[in-house]
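In the design runs reported in the main text, the only information available to the sequence generator was the tokenized backbone. The following block is the verbatim input for one such run; it is reproduced so that readers can re-run the procedure and compare outputs position by position.
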């Protein structure tokens, strides 16, 4: 009967103790301590961590930078290990691919990326020549993509449009953006929050690997789940875990 109350009291005392320890440190000292512990937690994996804001102020938010192409599994391990350090307020990847806030790695957002990739692995959202109109089958495919993206509420999703190599490249860039915008509107109509979608057009500059640039299959849309949230590291106000 009294065990839950004892557990709650013990947790409260631990929190107070950590706060008192943190209060005895300056912001710079806490930042340096977190940096050292993060380096140990990363344990030689190809990621660096810093605990300063963009303006250079000490922060308890970890800014993680991958060295090279780091697999998502390693990213998740590093983010989880750093977020678990007492005093860390959040974890952010500087390349925007994944974010863990208050110790929680956004596995749902990563799963969303995998689900969309699986849908588009064998099929592509394609368009009619010189048009932002979907080719046959595009509407049904967008239904599937929307269903895969829907569980990722709060994620930021990049939509990139591409064209084939025919025609004038400045016009291709405009057309590729129009295609991305059309897909954005279609997803919003299917219940995906407009604020979570960002679009860009690359024209014919990135053809599908192995295809001739003029191949119609290059007229396509690609998706990337960029981040779970957009968080700016802030200077330390009250050191200690939150």
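Verbatim output:
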């Amino acid at each position: 009967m009294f065990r839950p109350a004892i557990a709650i009291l013990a947790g409260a005392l631990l929190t107070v103790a950590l706060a008192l320890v943190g209060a005895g440190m300056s912001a710079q000292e806490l930042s340096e301590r977190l940096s050292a512990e993060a380096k140990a937690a990363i344990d030689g994996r190809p990621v660096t961590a810093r605990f300063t804001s963009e303006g250079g102020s000490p922060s308890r938010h970890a800014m993680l930078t991958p060295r090279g192409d780091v697999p998502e599994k390693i990213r998740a391990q590093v983010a989880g290990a750093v977020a678990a350090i007492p005093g860390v307020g959040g974890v952010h990847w500087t390349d925007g691919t994944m974010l863990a806030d208050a110790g929680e790695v956004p596995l749902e957002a990563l799963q969303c990326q995998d689900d969309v990739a699986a849908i588009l692995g064998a099929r592509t959202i394609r368009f009619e020549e010189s048009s932002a109109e979907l080719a046959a089958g595009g509407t049904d495919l967008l239904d599937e993509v929307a269903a895969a993206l829907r569980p990722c509420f709060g994620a930021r999703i990049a939509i990139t449009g591409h064209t084939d190599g025919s025609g004038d490249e400045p016009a291709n860039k405009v057309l590729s953006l129009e295609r991305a915008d059309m897909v954005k509107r279609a997803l919003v109509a299917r219940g995906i929050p407009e604020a979570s979608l960002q679009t860009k057009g690359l024209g014919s500059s990135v053809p599908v690997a192995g295809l001739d640039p003029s191949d119609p299959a290059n007229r396509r849309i690609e998706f990337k789940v960029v981040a779970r949230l957009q968080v700016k590291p802030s200077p330390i106000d009250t050191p200690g875990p939150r």
